[in-house]
Amino acid sequence: MIQRIQTLYLFLVVVLSIIFLTGDLFVINIKNGEIIKLNLIQTDNLLLNNFNRVSLTLFKISFFISITIASASFVSIFLFRKRKLQKYFTLFSTILSFVLTAISFYLLYFFSKMPDSEVISGVRLVIPPALFLFTILAVRGIVNDEKLIKSYERLR
Questions:
Q1: Cα angle: 139, vertex 142, 147; to 5 degrees
Q2: CA 116 to chain CA centroid, nearest Å
Q3: Spans of all domains in the chain
Q4: Nearest to 103 by CA among 136, 138, 135, 57
Q5: φ/ψ of residue 35, rounded to 5
Q6: 18, 38, 78, 113: least buried by Cβ within 10 Å?
Q7: What is the model's pTM?
């Protein structure tokens, strides 16, 4: 299980998606001296007054997507004997990580277009594209394992 490269990629996906949940994604400095820190676990009530409902809904959806990516990747680590099911779980994580990347960059674009404010994006904004990359590499590893097993079966 641990000697396969896709297990390491999936473990990195789990760790990175847990790191993505903690800490601030954006820090918004408003011109009147107010500072709003946006993280996925808690959002200020000030957000309800300053931002539209669509961006808040996307912000909360990204929290659930990150949890789903972590849990699907964690489950697929232990499905090493059922490669087809492992591949489906990893493809599901890949799709969700792409959606998480799109939502994160849309929110960055939306918050940067707000008048009288400055957006400072955190390092955690790099995590969704890294999740996408690692899940794609894990899928490639699973496919390579399937090809290797099929070639051994042909030799028998």
A1: 125
A2: 30
A3: 5-155
A4: 57
A5: -120, 125
A6: 113
A7: 0.82
Is the pLDDT reported for residue 53 higher than 80? no
Please say whether the structural domain 5-155 has been given the CATH code 1.10.10.60: no
Question: Can you tell me the distance from the alpha carbon of 96 to that of 125, in angstroms, rounded to the nearest whole number?
Answer: 16
Inter-axis angle of helices 5-21 and 53-77, to 10 degrees? 150
CA–CA distances in Å: residue 88 to residues 36, 128, 138, 139 = 39, 20, 11, 9
The DSSP symbol for 129 reads H
**pLDDT at 156 (0 to 100):** 65
32 CA to centre of own chain: 33
- Spatial strand order of the sheet with 24-30 comes to 35-39, 24-30, 117-121
End-to-end CA distance of the chain: 24
